[in-house]
Amino acid sequence: MAIDRSVSGSSKVSLLEKIDAPDRSSIASLSEVWAKKYIRDLHRQDQALLSLDQSQTKTDIAQKLVDILRSVSARAWNKTEILLSHEIRRHQISPDLIDPWTIAKDVHQVYEKALTAYAQGVAPQRFSVAASKQLGAIRQTHTAIDPRVIGFVSMQFHYCGQMLLAEVPEAEQPMLQAYFKVVDDLLYMPLHRAYTAAAGYDYHDPRLEAVRMALPATSRIAHTIVNQVIDLCSDYASYSGPLSSPVVHTSSVRDVEMFQIYLWTCVLENSISAIAQELFPLCLMLYPTLKVNWGLVRLMVNLLDQELSACVGSINVQYYEPHYSAMLKMFSPSIFPEPI
Question: Which of the chain's ends, N or C, has fewer CB atoms near its CB within 10 Å?
């Protein structure tokens, strides 16, 4: 019997489909493998993130923080905007002066260097010297047109540092905080401006001598004043918590240091402009937002005088007294009647 080798058109199509079409069971198998692999990778990444709390080395911690720096910076920006957007409008600061991309780039570069210094065991003091020029330039760039912009920039840096610290094992937080405090200090304080003014004096000028005596005592004086304020106002709490809490205590010490540096900048410039045009507006922008009482600020400023006079000696009080008196009047009850 002859075999009919002819195949109909429809049979050909059906046969070709069977030949060319992928094996559906193979597709299901491959997709299942891929899904399992993806989930396995996610679990591995979860473990890597969780291991941040159990890292054995500073290098591990620093690398993990660099990896999350972008997202942390974005969260810090959001918090800063929520807190200060109204104040920026109220103070009529041009939004064009606050460039999110430039600030984000500055934040990433500075904190990456801070984390590298921490990982390599570079002392915070050495990191301060190394970072001083860069942070001074950042400060100068953002304050060139309107000095009040530094309030927004410094708060963005500050919250970024706080959020990074929250991701670090508790045992490592004090050490890392020392590096982040350097960043805070160099941004909040006009140190570069003070150094520039100091360069115009002869080394043995009595005005410069007075500042040189005071600067090494800045932190000691700040801690003394903050501890006195805590004793006198033990029930007081700001936006971030009670005065005695570690976060508020650190910020309070920085603020008292900041007031001193602004005062010495005025002494070296022989002008009140640094306080009048930068510090005072900065306080007006930040303190009400952070629920810092004006009576508390006034108490701090009053305590500052006795500490400074004891530090530099009565003969040198003449150099800071006019600028200190002007600052005292700016925060007086006639301007801010709010009691503690």
Answer: N
Which of 31, 25, 6, 110 lies closest to 65, judged by CA? Answer: 110
Number of domains within the chain: 2
pLDDT, tens digit (0-9, with 9 covering 90-100), for 272-313 = 999 999 999 999 999 999 999 999 999 999 999 999 999 999
Residue 253 has which token pair?
């010490």
Distance CA 187, CA 176 (A): 17
pLDDT reading at 14 higher than 60: no
In this prediction, residues 138-155 reach a mean pLDDT of 92
- Cα separation, 121 vs 129, in Å, equals 15
Phi and psi dihedrals of 242, rounded to 5? -65, 155
Looking at the fold, whether 208 and 227 belong to one and the same domain comes out as: yes
> What φ, ψ does residue 297 adopt, rounded to 5°?
-60, -45
3-state secondary structure of 6: coil
Structural domain boundaries enclosing 299: 196-340
* CA dist., res. 149 & res. 81, Å (int): 13
Structure tokens at 321: 């007294």
Q: Which of these three, 188, 221, 254, is where a domain ends?
A: 188
With beta carbons less than 8 A apart as the criterion, state whether 149 and 143 touch.
yes
Mean pLDDT confidence for 114-137: 94
Average pLDDT of the segment spanning 96-108: 92
pLDDT at 5 over 90: no
Residue 6 lies in a domain: no
DSSP string, 195-241: HHHHTTS-TT-HHHHHHHHHGGGHHHHHHHHHHHHHHHTTT-EETTE
Judgement on whether residues 110 and 211 belong to the same structural domain of the protein: no
The answer to whether residue 11 sits within a structural domain is no
Do 297 and 246 share a domain, yes or no?
A: yes
DSSP H stretches of helix in 21-57: 24-50
Please give the angle made by the CA atoms of 191, 195 and 198, to the nearest 5 degrees: 135
Say how many C-beta atoms besides its own lie within 10 A of residue 227's C-beta: 15
Residue with tokens 């007031």: 259
Last residue of a domain, one of 188, 206, 241: 188
Can you tell me the distance from the alpha carbon of 98 to that of 106, in angstroms, rounded to the nearest whole number?
Answer: 13
